[in-house]
Amino acid sequence: xxxxxxxxxxxxxxxxxxxxxxxxxxxxxxxxxxxxxxxxxxxxxxxxxxxxxxxxxxxxxxxxxxxxxxxxxxxxxxxxxxxxxxxxxxxxxxxxxxxxxxxxxxxxxxxxxxxxxxxxxxxxxxxxxxxxxxxxxxxxxxxxxxxxxxxxxxxxxxxxxxxxxxxxxxxxxxxxxxxxxxxxxxxxxxxxxxxxxxxxxxxxxxxxxxxxxxxxxxxxxxxxxxxxxxxxxxxxxxxxxxxxxxxxxxxxxxxxxxxxx
Length: 261
Fold this sequence. Notes:
Blueprint: H1 13-16, E1 38-40, E2 43-48, E3 51-57, E4 60-62, E5 65-68, E6 74-77, E7 81-88, H2 89-108, H3 117-133, E8 140-147, E9 153-158, E10 164-166, E11 169-171, H4 175-178, H5 180-186, H6 190-193, H7 198-215, E12 222-229, E13 233-241
Antiparallel strand pairs: 1-4, 1-7, 2-3, 2-11, 3-12, 4-5, 6-7, 7-8, 8-9, 9-10, 12-13
């Protein structure tokens, strides 16, 4: 009797002919993603004096179709970091598995070290740059929010090329055009962060999510929002809805509805 695991569940050779394992070794060309199929749009974040506020809507679009309306694009890492993803959802899930592996290694490791937001951002920048160098990029732009090694609010970005930068306020996707001007009115530079309260930051981010819903065809009125603070850690809400919506401004837009000359 053949006890080798390779033979388990195989048809009998004398009844069905020799087993052909060639389908396990495809000979076709190696393929890379040339353009993302299912994507998430903007992620918006801003610092305040005691932490960071970050938000992203729950929509994943299949091309121009608003297909999936319950995709959470904010991912907590332990109790001190939030990662926000825009771009390809399958690549986001791949990165999430990488982060889960790192989280488990840290949880069960014996080094005594703890990764902060700055460490996670550095790690993700190396992952993105390596994939870009292999000509097989991960089609995402990522915001990392939390605290650095000095326990100061940290907010930084990395894109599919491995390019990184930091700012008191950041936004990806359409938010880089529509939300950033609003956030920069609130926080012009790093010096202004110390005067911004949690309530001001929350109000500004919620207003940005409303503007994006009005103006971005790939956005949704349900979103996830997180506050990372020194005292409260991570406070993540994943099913917020836009409040006080009003489309009255649309009547003043040329080309909207019936035009009276």
